[in-house]
Structures are given as C-alpha cells and as structure tokens.
Amino acid sequence: PDRDDLAPDLPEDVDGFEDDDGRPDMDNDGDGISDERDGCPNEPEDFDGDRDLDGCPDNEA
To answer: What does the domain layout of the chain look like in residue ranges?
Structure first.
C-alpha cells in the first residue's frame, strides 16, 4: 500500500480496469453482476428479458 491506495487492506485485482486506484473492482461495468460470474465484465448487461443473468448485452436483431 501507499498513500494513493484507496483500499490498503485489499489487493488490487489487476484486470485492466482502474488498476491504478489500489482497490479491487468486483463489478467493472456496474451492472450488478460480479465480474467472477459476468460473461462480459466490461460491458453492462442490458436487462431486456433475454439471457439477463449472463452479464452480456444481447445483440438486437
């Protein structure tokens, strides 16, 4: 930890998303589905009634 570490007791989850803030990001895209269960952790789910728990936005036809 250093003076810029926002979570000195938790290790950063180096995953290419806000890695310089010094804290783990459990839901990169903020869709409410944790990254460990999210098929698309950097793209928010669109909750349109089609495969809403996979964490990925669905292609509109």
So the answer is: 1-47
